[in-house]
Amino acid sequence: MAIRQASLLLYIVMITAGWAYPVLGIGLLVFMALVVLSGRRKKWCGSYCPRGSFLDLVMSKVSPKRPIPRFLTSRKTWATGFALFVGLFVFQLWRAGLFGPWDGSSLMQLGLIFYRMCLVSSAVAIPLALWKNHRSWCAVCPVGNIMRA
Ligand code: SF4
Protein backbone atom coordinates (compact mmCIF):
# COMPACT_ATOMS: atom_id res chain seq x y z
CA MET A 1 0.00 0.00 0.00
CA ALA A 2 1.36 3.42 -0.95
CA ILE A 3 2.23 5.75 1.91
CA ARG A 4 -0.54 8.21 1.05
CA GLN A 5 -3.21 5.52 1.08
CA ALA A 6 -1.79 4.17 4.35
CA SER A 7 -1.85 7.60 5.98
CA LEU A 8 -5.41 8.17 4.69
CA LEU A 9 -6.40 4.90 6.35
CA LEU A 10 -4.72 6.06 9.56
CA TYR A 11 -6.73 9.29 9.40
CA ILE A 12 -10.05 7.44 8.94
CA VAL A 13 -9.28 5.02 11.78
CA MET A 14 -8.15 7.88 14.02
CA ILE A 15 -11.22 10.04 13.41
CA THR A 16 -13.73 7.23 13.72
CA ALA A 17 -12.20 5.30 16.62
CA GLY A 18 -9.84 7.70 18.42
CA TRP A 19 -12.42 8.65 21.06
CA ALA A 20 -12.77 5.00 22.09
CA TYR A 21 -9.11 4.07 21.59
CA PRO A 22 -7.00 7.05 22.67
CA VAL A 23 -3.90 4.95 22.04
CA LEU A 24 -4.42 5.94 18.37
CA GLY A 25 -3.60 9.54 19.33
CA ILE A 26 -0.31 8.33 20.82
CA GLY A 27 0.27 6.28 17.69
CA LEU A 28 -0.09 9.41 15.59
CA LEU A 29 2.39 11.25 17.79
CA VAL A 30 4.89 8.38 17.52
CA PHE A 31 4.42 8.26 13.74
CA MET A 32 5.11 12.00 13.50
CA ALA A 33 8.19 11.66 15.73
CA LEU A 34 9.52 8.81 13.56
CA VAL A 35 9.12 10.87 10.38
CA VAL A 36 10.94 13.82 11.99
CA LEU A 37 13.71 11.66 13.47
CA SER A 38 14.28 9.94 10.13
CA GLY A 39 15.01 13.34 8.57
CA ARG A 40 11.80 13.48 6.50
CA ARG A 41 10.23 16.43 8.31
CA LYS A 42 9.86 18.48 5.14
CA LYS A 43 8.06 15.60 3.43
CA TRP A 44 5.46 15.36 6.19
CA CYS A 45 2.83 17.57 4.54
CA GLY A 46 3.20 16.16 1.04
CA SER A 47 3.53 12.48 1.84
CA TYR A 48 2.90 11.43 5.41
CA CYS A 49 0.34 13.66 7.12
CA PRO A 50 -2.89 11.66 7.55
CA ARG A 51 -5.09 14.74 7.22
CA GLY A 52 -3.10 15.98 4.24
CA SER A 53 -3.76 12.64 2.54
CA PHE A 54 -7.45 12.89 3.40
CA LEU A 55 -7.61 16.42 1.97
CA ASP A 56 -5.78 15.41 -1.21
CA LEU A 57 -7.34 12.02 -1.85
CA VAL A 58 -10.91 12.64 -0.67
CA MET A 59 -11.75 16.32 -0.23
CA SER A 60 -10.08 17.38 -3.48
CA LYS A 61 -12.81 15.46 -5.29
CA VAL A 62 -15.57 17.63 -3.83
CA SER A 63 -13.70 20.92 -3.37
CA PRO A 64 -14.27 23.74 -5.90
CA LYS A 65 -10.44 24.19 -5.87
CA ARG A 66 -10.63 27.96 -5.86
CA PRO A 67 -7.60 29.96 -4.73
CA ILE A 68 -7.00 29.91 -0.98
CA PRO A 69 -8.39 33.17 0.50
CA ARG A 70 -5.62 35.69 1.09
CA PHE A 71 -6.61 36.34 4.69
CA LEU A 72 -5.79 32.70 5.46
CA THR A 73 -2.26 33.08 4.20
CA SER A 74 -1.50 36.24 6.16
CA ARG A 75 1.02 36.23 8.99
CA LYS A 76 -1.59 37.64 11.37
CA THR A 77 -4.03 34.78 10.73
CA TRP A 78 -1.27 32.23 11.15
CA ALA A 79 -0.10 33.80 14.43
CA THR A 80 -3.69 33.93 15.76
CA GLY A 81 -4.33 30.32 14.76
CA PHE A 82 -1.04 29.19 16.26
CA ALA A 83 -1.74 30.97 19.57
CA LEU A 84 -5.25 29.47 19.69
CA PHE A 85 -3.98 25.98 18.91
CA VAL A 86 -1.21 26.09 21.52
CA GLY A 87 -3.53 27.72 24.08
CA LEU A 88 -6.17 25.04 23.58
CA PHE A 89 -3.56 22.31 23.79
CA VAL A 90 -1.99 23.66 27.00
CA PHE A 91 -5.44 24.21 28.54
CA GLN A 92 -6.37 20.58 27.90
CA LEU A 93 -3.07 19.34 29.33
CA TRP A 94 -3.72 21.40 32.44
CA ARG A 95 -7.35 20.24 32.74
CA ALA A 96 -6.29 16.62 32.44
CA GLY A 97 -3.72 17.15 35.20
CA LEU A 98 -0.81 16.30 32.90
CA PHE A 99 1.41 19.03 34.34
CA GLY A 100 1.36 17.19 37.67
CA PRO A 101 2.52 13.67 38.48
CA TRP A 102 1.41 11.10 35.91
CA ASP A 103 -0.56 8.01 36.81
CA GLY A 104 -1.65 4.92 34.88
CA SER A 105 -4.22 6.82 32.80
CA SER A 106 -2.09 9.85 31.88
CA LEU A 107 -0.76 8.49 28.59
CA MET A 108 -4.27 7.68 27.37
CA GLN A 109 -5.40 11.17 28.48
CA LEU A 110 -2.67 12.59 26.25
CA GLY A 111 -3.87 10.38 23.39
CA LEU A 112 -7.40 11.68 23.88
CA ILE A 113 -6.14 15.27 23.74
CA PHE A 114 -4.37 14.56 20.42
CA TYR A 115 -7.55 12.98 19.13
CA ARG A 116 -9.62 16.03 20.14
CA MET A 117 -7.14 18.42 18.52
CA CYS A 118 -7.32 16.35 15.35
CA LEU A 119 -11.13 16.33 15.44
CA VAL A 120 -11.47 20.07 16.05
CA SER A 121 -8.99 20.99 13.32
CA SER A 122 -10.76 18.62 10.92
CA ALA A 123 -14.04 20.36 11.75
CA VAL A 124 -12.41 23.53 10.42
CA ALA A 125 -10.52 21.91 7.53
CA ILE A 126 -13.53 20.18 5.94
CA PRO A 127 -15.80 23.26 5.57
CA LEU A 128 -12.80 25.24 4.27
CA ALA A 129 -12.18 22.53 1.67
CA LEU A 130 -15.82 22.60 0.60
CA TRP A 131 -15.87 26.39 0.48
CA LYS A 132 -12.64 27.19 -1.35
CA ASN A 133 -9.74 24.80 -1.70
CA HIS A 134 -9.11 21.34 -0.26
CA ARG A 135 -5.78 22.54 1.17
CA SER A 136 -7.08 25.79 2.69
CA TRP A 137 -6.56 24.47 6.22
CA CYS A 138 -2.90 23.82 5.46
CA ALA A 139 -2.31 27.58 5.10
CA VAL A 140 -2.96 28.03 8.83
CA CYS A 141 -2.13 24.58 10.19
CA PRO A 142 0.34 25.05 13.08
CA VAL A 143 1.85 21.58 12.63
CA GLY A 144 2.44 22.09 8.92
CA ASN A 145 4.02 25.48 9.43
CA ILE A 146 6.42 24.01 11.99
CA MET A 147 7.24 21.02 9.78
CA ARG A 148 7.94 23.20 6.75
CA ALA A 149 10.02 25.78 8.69
S1 SF4 B 1 -0.33 21.64 6.80
FE1 SF4 B 1 -1.10 20.47 8.55
S2 SF4 B 1 -2.88 19.34 7.81
FE2 SF4 B 1 -1.78 20.13 6.03
S3 SF4 B 1 -0.52 18.44 5.43
FE3 SF4 B 1 0.72 19.72 6.76
S4 SF4 B 1 0.48 18.95 8.83
FE4 SF4 B 1 -1.10 18.05 7.55
User: What is the structural class?
Assistant: mainly alpha
| Largest sheet data | none
Strand content: under 5%
Mean pLDDT: 94
Helicity level: 55-70%
Shape: globular
Element string (H = helix, E = strand): HHHHHHHH
Number of helices: 8
Instruction: List low-confidence stretches.
Output: none
CA-to-CA gap between the ends? 29 Å
Radius of gyration: 16 Å
Q: What ions, cofactors and ligands are bound?
A: iron/sulfur cluster
The number of E-state strands comes to 0
Précis, in short:
The chain is mainly α and 149 residues long. It has helices at residues 3-17, 23-37, 44-48, 50-57, 75-95, 106-131, 136-140, 142-148.
Q: How would you describe what is shown here?
A:
- This protein is an all-alpha fold.
- The protein has one domain.
- The protein has 8 helices and no strands.
- It has helices spanning about 5-15, 25-35, 45-50, 50-55, 75-95, 105-130, 135-140, 140-149.
- Helix 1 crosses helix 4 and helix 2 (about 25-35) crosses helix 6.
- The chain is globular, with a radius of gyration of 16 Å.
- The two termini are about 30 Å apart.
- The mean pLDDT is about 95.
- It binds iron/sulfur cluster (SF4).
Fold topology:
Layout: H1 3-17, H2 23-37, H3 44-48, H4 50-57, H5 75-95, H6 106-131, H7 136-140, H8 142-148
Helix pairs in contact: 1-4, 2-6, 5-6
This protein binds iron/sulfur cluster.
The site of iron/sulfur cluster (SF4) has 11 residues, from α3, α4, α7 and α8.
Q: Can you tag this structure with a few keywords?
A:
single chain; 149 residues; mainly alpha; 8 helices; globular; binds iron/sulfur cluster
